[in-house]
Amino acid sequence: MPLILDIAITHIAGRGRQTVVAVLGVAVGVGFSIAMAALMQGGQDDFVRQLVDTMPHVDITDDQRSARRQPAEDAFATVAISGLRPRDDRRGIINPTAATAWLESWIPGRFAASLKTQGVVRYSSREVGASIIGVDPQRELGVSPIVGKFIKGSFADLAAGGNNVLIGDTMANRLGAGLGDTITAVSSQGLTRNFKIGALFHTGTTARDEGEAYVLLKNAQIVSARPNAINEIRIKLDDPNRAPAVAKRAEAELGYKAVAWQEANESILQALVVRNVIMYTVVGAIMLVAGFGIYNIISTITHEKARDIAIMKSLGFPEADMRRLFLLEGMAIGAGGSAIGCVLGFAMIYALSMVRFQIAATGQEITHLPIAWSLLHYVIASAFALGSAAVAGYLPARRAARLNPVDIIRGAT
What sequence ranges are listed for the domain ABC3 transporter permease C-terminal (predicted)? Predict the structure, then answer.
């Protein structure tokens, strides 16, 4: 084996320029593959992290997953019921005290009940459509996405006064209002109540900064004429991956629709899987192109060293050694390119991680490129490179092993 390795190194060194080009081709492919994988994986991880951080892991609402059974269906063997008039049912979650007590007994995390109603927020002659959300400040601290996102005031200001309201800075700008101003909330029932702006938050999400107003739960119940009612329970788990199991158990017990964050974003998560498939397909294509360079140089060496092959086989080297010789040459080029490519990939990732910029026009602020530092990316890119090198080296090696030394020495083609 050391003799075969020494011969392989001699063959590669004999074509220095072509070898360097082939190694650089593999290195560039590996480097760009690592950088692309780190950037795409970082973007995906950052996106999923934002989903997990900005939305409840389990959201229980007063909706039903399927239509309620009609009393007539229990009394008669009906096939279908037509002509039903919808009933204005605004009760929310029935018996909320018992529901929250049951959740408190086993939920591995935190939860908060709230009452959300649609309405209009007015100031001076301006008005903005908004979701008026009544919350319990103590419980809301554990689940709210706006905690820690305040640019003026804090979440604690909600409970500082009886009629305080927390709104986004975008809503405040549209209304022309500022901290300490008094705005009017009008519910869909036509009831109005004045609130003092206690704090301004900025989450970077336009829908939230422009369309949500947080008040005390009792104030939301008064404005919507729904005393002691709640219509949503938001749960934050210690382990977000347990959300489907928690949602299934809560829905089975309470009878209300409970949606895990995975279910709410199922189409997005499926799109991310498809994107990963595309990413690794592109990585494989890059390595395949690099493999053609390796195949070209090994084929050239095989052609030029035909007489050497004949002499070696005449001296007793078996076909297996011939295959092993040229396979080693391909693997050596692939390994050298992979090593240089890993260094190149690391340098590119580090350079990308230093890029700083800001985009706020779309509602999402990005101050740096999301990068995923993962050893797996280096392993996968190197594995693709070595696999391509092995295939590129094996094909000429198999042909070289089949050469007849007598025909070569006689000058046959």
Answer: 282-405
**What tens digit of pLDDT does each residue of 214-237 get?**
999 999 999 988 888 899 999 999
- Into how many domains does the chain fold? 2
Q: Domain for residue 216, yes or no?
A: yes
Give the amino acid at 65.
Answer: R
Q: pLDDT tens, 310-327?
A: 666 666 667 677 677 777
Instruction: Provide the 10 A C-beta neighbour count for residue 355.
Output: 10
pLDDT in tens, 134-187: 999 889 888 988 888 899 988 888 887 678 999 999 999 999 999 989 999 998
In a domain, residue 59? The reply is: no
Domain of residue 160: give its range: 90-256
